[in-house]
């Protein structure tokens, strides 16, 4: 069965700390990977996506993620977080021909203290 | 705002009543999706349309749920004889068939509380 798991339910950091959120997936065949963010009271927004090519993907707001096929991982990173990064982060995956049918992880709540 | 819009944003209903949610996708987006999200969980896929055709339905979509997209534009999701377990956020999303990478854009969701 297709699945996505996120390692941490809640991460608490101080401003300027580095961030890494773990994501592992279980999918047969070609997989497309995404990170979405949901700021308080707002809709899900796409941070970045991986379809093919360079496994290091850069997204908006200084976020990046690395696709490591051998580890079935797609971890999200940011070298220096800001208070405004406080939000819930979701990793998601879709089969190669099913772009719209996303399987989401449980989400990770990130709290950044000023 | 030219994003995905959903209505109503919040709905409280008594168990056994029917509810209907509406979604207006980004104009000219061919694909429209419905997801459900409960507290502490990520969204779960329910169904999707390409134009007016409903191409896939999740097994989560019981017989009490029906979705339509009659003219290939807006969509409705109806829940009949609501149960407390239906309490959740219902998310609509859309994407363009030809857009590179086929990014999916989500609406703000419709909260359903069944009492």
Mean pLDDT of chain A: 92
Q: State the distance separating the first and last CA atoms of chain A.
A: 41 Å
Q: How many DSSP helices of chain A? A: 0
Number of strand segments of chain B: 11
Biggest interface found:
A-B, 20 and 25 residues
Class from helix and strand fractions of chain A? mainly beta
Radius of gyration based on Cα positions of chain B: 13 Å
Question: Could you characterize what this model shows?
Answer:
The complex is a heterodimer of chains A (114) and B (115). Chain A has 114 residues and is mainly β. Chain A has no helices and 12 strands. In chain A, the strands form 3 sheets. In chain A, strands 2, 5, 6, 10, 11 and 12 form a 6-stranded mixed beta sheet that branches. Chain A starts with a strand and ends with a strand. By secondary structure, chain B is mainly beta. In chain B, the strands form 2 sheets. In chain B, strands 2, 4, 5, 6, 9, 10 and 11 form a 7-stranded mixed beta sheet that branches. Chain B has a 4-stranded antiparallel beta sheet with strand order 1-3-8-7, with no helix packed on it. The chains are: A mainly beta (114), B mainly beta (115). Chain A binds chain B through residues 4, 36, 42-46, 49, 51, 90, 92, 99-107, and chain B through 3-4, 31, 33, 35, 40-45, 48, 56, 91, 93, 95, 101-109.
């Amino acid at each position: 069965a297709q699945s996505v798991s996120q390692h941490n339910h809640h991460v608490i950091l101080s401003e300027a700390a580095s961030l890494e959120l773990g994501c592992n997936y279980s999918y047969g065949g070609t997989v497309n990977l995404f990170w979405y963010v949901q700021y308080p009271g707002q809709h899900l927004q796409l941070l970045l996506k991986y379809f093919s090519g360079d496994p290091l993907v850069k997204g908006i707001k200084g976020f990046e993620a690395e696709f490591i096929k051998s580890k079935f991982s797609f971890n999200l990173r940011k070298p220096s977080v800001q208070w405004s990064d406080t939000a819930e982060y979701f990793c998601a995956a879709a089969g190669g021909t099913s772009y719209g049918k996303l399987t989401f992880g449980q989400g990770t709540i990130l709290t950044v203290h000023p | 705002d030219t994003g995905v819009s959903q209505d109503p944003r919040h709905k409280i209903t008594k168990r056994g009543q029917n509810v209907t949610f509406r979604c207006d996708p980004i104009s000219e987006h061919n694909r429209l999706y419905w997801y459900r999200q409960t507290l502490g969980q990520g969204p779960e896929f329910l169904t999707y349309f390409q134009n007016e055709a409903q191409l896939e339905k999740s097994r989560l979509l019981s017989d009490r749920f029906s979705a339509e997209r009659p003219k290939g534009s807006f969509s409705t999701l109806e829940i009949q004889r609501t149960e407390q377990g239906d309490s959740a956020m219902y998310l609509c999303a859309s994407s363009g068939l030809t857009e590179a990478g086929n990014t999916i854009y989500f609406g703000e969701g419709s909260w359903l509380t069944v009492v």
